[in-house]
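Service request form, structural biology core

Requester: graduate student, group of Dr. S.
Request type: structure prediction, single chain
Budget code: on file
Notes: please return the result as structure tokens.

Sequence provided:
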Amino acid sequence: MKQETESAYQVLPQAELFAVMNDNGRFQFMSLNCEEHLGFTSAEFIGTSLQDYVHKDDLFLVESYFYNEHHLHPCTFRFLMKNGAFIWLEATVDFIKSTSGKKENQIILKIKLLKSHEQEFSSKPVQMNNPLLIDEAKEININASELLKRMPCPLFISQKGQLCYVNQALIDLLGGSSKEDLLGKDVLDIIDHDYHDIVKNRIQRMQQGSYVGQIEQTWRRLDGSPVEVEIKAAPAVFKNQPAELVVLLDISSRKKFQKILQKSRERYQLLIQNSIDTIAVIHREKWVFINESGVKLFEADDYPDMLGKNIFSSLDPEYHEQVKEKLQNIVHLRTDVEVTKQSWHTYKSSTIYTEMVCIPTTYFGEPAVQVILRDISDRKKAEELMLRSEKLSVAGQLAAGIAHEIRNPLTAIKGFLQLMRSAGKGEPTYFEIVFSELNRIELILSELLMLAKPQERVLKQTNLFTLIQDVATLLETQAIMNNVMIVHQHPQDQMSINCDKNQIKQVFINLIKNAIDSMPNGGKVTLSSTQEGDYILVKVKDEGDGIPDEVLKKIGEPFFTTKEKGTGLGLMITYKIIENHKGSMSIESELGQGTVFTLKLPSAEAEKN
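Core staff response, request fulfilled:
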């Protein structure tokens, strides 16, 4: 907010503006003449908050006036213009309440921009030659003098700003010893300089018989110390002359407390804005406040992208009922705190997982929910990795036991069957079936042993392009038999990695075979590679039916397979080999379009550095 100097305030020619606010204090309408007097266009006001324009010293007055439906008298306060200056204005307020059962209300503002004191007012002056008014003034002077003197609140009567009557409470407030210390003084001598223009304006209006609004001012005691006061004034008659009757309320304690609250609010806002967790307020299932961390968490461009939007538009449908129940519990004060976990979709279509703490709060007097969202996406990934690691460990231990327990009797069975076949005993077809199944069992055992037994890796610098070509050549016959074409897309043929050549070959054999198997009616397998920084990316793309989301989540788990004769260990071993080579593998799939496996392996040059 601009530094407060006398030149920072302007008093413009009198004009009337009309505005409509919702019950949250945000402008819904502003009359078109606002640009002429305030600098802002009507469109610029829409959606902004009244408190953004009110001078910080008048904010407490405005909040108490508008939001407590107090509209007996106009309220006078300072308003920010587009050029950075403040103007004085008077506002009266009325409320439109919904009759349709909805809770939304509207606030109607009638705003008057105050005239400068040099200009004439069109309001009708008081007719001081009226005998009734003269008699009334005499009655006040005769019968009310003692009453005014004993009034507990400070008051005075002035004529054109010059004090001509003061009561004891005012003398005490300003630190005087007798009324002679104040009588004859100009009010401008004891009012802070920043308020002089508006005081002159108010005096002139009361001289013309007009009523003026409530205002807060800073006055100076006789010793020069400041005192904060709330002013209510009205035109009066004193000794047959127009005068101003002014009542003061010492609000120094309230203002001091207000400043303490303001500092506390600023510290609280600073804490919220700089929190690494998302802190937000939900009112009627809409975001009405969110901090910067929340904007970043949801990958929004700015606050307006989120404010006013329904929270369920981003929340995973799986959690809708759960979150609704938690919010209702808080709003209806059934519980003091609710903790839940859920997933959201960001504005860039990413998925994030959060832990949400809900506590009750209010939003412009209505029940609302304050939430703290903590991003647990990394934690969830770590938990999934740990779970997968545990499964690998269990599978490995299980595999070792099974392999050793089965291999020995399997060898004996196979040997005796060979003797029986050579002796010509039994049906030959049966032998073929039995040997086929035994070979399958041996294949499963080999994969189990590879999973269970730590493999000794011999890392050598290998040309990845050549390795991929070799594997493709090895599987070319199988591809042709299945009407599948293998296509290469490699911008360069000199991409080297440090790897165990046999293990990486096993990875590509598994992936290419899976790609071929996914296209029973034929198609194309595309092998592509690119270098991105310190990593080499290899993609294996097929044109199969794609993988459903529920299946995609389970890929790589031990013994999970969609193939009729699959073991579910191939991709599990592939993941493990890539992980051992400090790389990663990701899967993208779209139903009816196919699947892409992407391998990310560190280049040999990067590992040297």
